[in-house]
Specification:
Elements lengths: L4 H26 L2 H8 L3 H29 L1 H15 L9 H33 L4 H22 L5 H25 L32 H35 L4 H20 L1 H30 L3 H15 L2 H42 L2 H21 L7
């Protein structure tokens, strides 16, 4: 168990590296979705079904990851999932049918879901040990990784095939994992004090040796954890939509080139990174409740512009405003759930959140077939508005 500030700093660096790697690999995959869609001859609905493989793999893994983390440790599970994620990102361009694409995306989704629950659990342990609201900084690393991955994808889209591009990302992923894994594997997570059942936040916390069964949320606490999970799900839905459908919207509906279409997700990820880098200061100034309300309202307005604007540059502006609004909602939801119920709260909120991120894109695919892709993307604004209303209703549920 880390016992010095230097150990905690090393852990923070290593966990941050895995957040960044996750965003980098995921963005590298999503900017090549239009090319792989063309390669497989899939319609929007077929692509939605294939993307359901990511969702199914992630959700199934998330239900097991909490148990694996309790048995083997969140650090060990993070490293194992990083290896699988790095290897599986190279598989989609090797497929030539919707069925085969869905099958490999099932593996990719399993790794993606597992690593997200594992490193969020590790991050919340570290946030509690450091006693500072630094959770947005970890998610800023994810967004920065996504920005770099999307930007790189846009640069090489015209020069490299998806097969060569994603194989290169797999190599990068394995190298980063090899560099960061030793720090995680050498140290156990810091002890995380948690709240019991329906105790008020000022109640004494249990000792680190308390059995896991005594730390499961009950009653009102369980209900609040689910509410924060809903906030995470509503906002992460927008992240998934932007990742999987943003580039296609710009290319298909606004006649952007493949390189400019990739720039859409880059703008979104850059704005989200800026928002999250300033997240700690924002939380200290506004508090968690006001941050959720302001962010949700901003995201709703931005996505209406991004999805319905007839101009490419107006759409890019809308994507950036959406990223700025969504930036701190997911980190706040996960942290608030952890404050209420410890690791089990983190697992619940993360499952809701990443379930929304991964189930949203297939839903948008079906809506795009029934209506149109721009109209389908307005569902992001609707859910951001719902998150805002939930934020208003829960502002006093957990103290800042």
């Amino acid at each position: 168990m880390p016992g010095t500030s230097r150990d905690l700093t090393r852990l923070r660096t290593a966990i941050t590296a895995f957040f960044a790697l996750d965003g980098f690999l995921f963005a590298g995959w999503v900017v090549r979705i239009p090319a792989i869609k063309h390669q497989t001859g899939a319609s929007a609905g077929d692509l939605g079904l294939a993307l359901l493989g990511v969702s199914a793999g992630a959700v199934l893994t998330m239900t097991l990851t909490g148990r694996l983390c309790r048995r083997y440790g969140s650090h060990q599970v993070t490293v194992a999932c990083a290896v699988l994620l790095s290897l599986s990102v190279a598989l989609p361009p090797l497929t030539h049918s919707v069925l085969a694409l869905g099958a490999v995306l099932l593996i990719f989704g399993a790794a993606y879901g597992g690593i997200n629950v594992a490193f969020n659990s590790a991050a919340v342990d570290l946030v509690t040990a450091l006693r500072r609201p630094i959770m947005p900084s970890f998610h800023a690393a994810f967004s920065l990784g996504g920005m770099v991955g999307a930007g790189l994808g846009g640069l090489v889209a015209g020069a490299l095939s998806p097969t060569v591009h994603l194989a290169g990302l797999a190599v990068v992923g394995l190298l980063v994992t090899a560099a960061a894994a030793p720090t995680l594997l050498r140290h156990e997570p810091p002890s995380t004090p948690t709240l019991l059942h329906d105790e008020p936040p000022s109640a004494p916390t249990p000792t680190p040796s308390a059995p896991e069964t005594s730390r499961r949320p009950r009653g009102r606490t369980r209900g609040l954890v689910i509410v924060f999970g809903l906030i995470a799900g509503c906002t992460a839905y927008g992240e998934g939509a932007m990742a999987d459908w943003g580039a296609l919207h710009l290319e298909q509906d606004l006649d952007a080139s493949s390189g400019v279409a990739a720039l859409g997700y880059t703008c979104f990820a850059l704005a989200m990174t800026i928002g999250r880098l300033s997240g700690t200061a924002l939380l200290e100034r506004l508090g968690h409740g006001r941050t959720v309300v302001a962010g949700g309202a901003t995201a709703a307005a931005g996505m209406l512009l991004g999805s319905l604007a007839p101009s490419l540059w107006a759409a890019l502006l809308g994507f950036a405003v959406t990223g700025l609004g969504l930036a701190n909602l997911f980190p706040v939801a996960v942290e608030r759930a952890g404050t209420l119920a410890g690791p089990s709260g983190v697992a619940t909120a993360s499952t809701f959140g990443y379930g929304g991120m991964l189930l949203g894109p297939p839903a948008i695919g079906f809506m795009a077939d029934w209506l149109s892709l721009p109209v389908a993307l307005t569902s992001v604004a609707v859910l951001a508005a719902i998150a805002t209303l939930i934020g208003v209703a829960t502002r006093r549920a957990v103290p800042n």
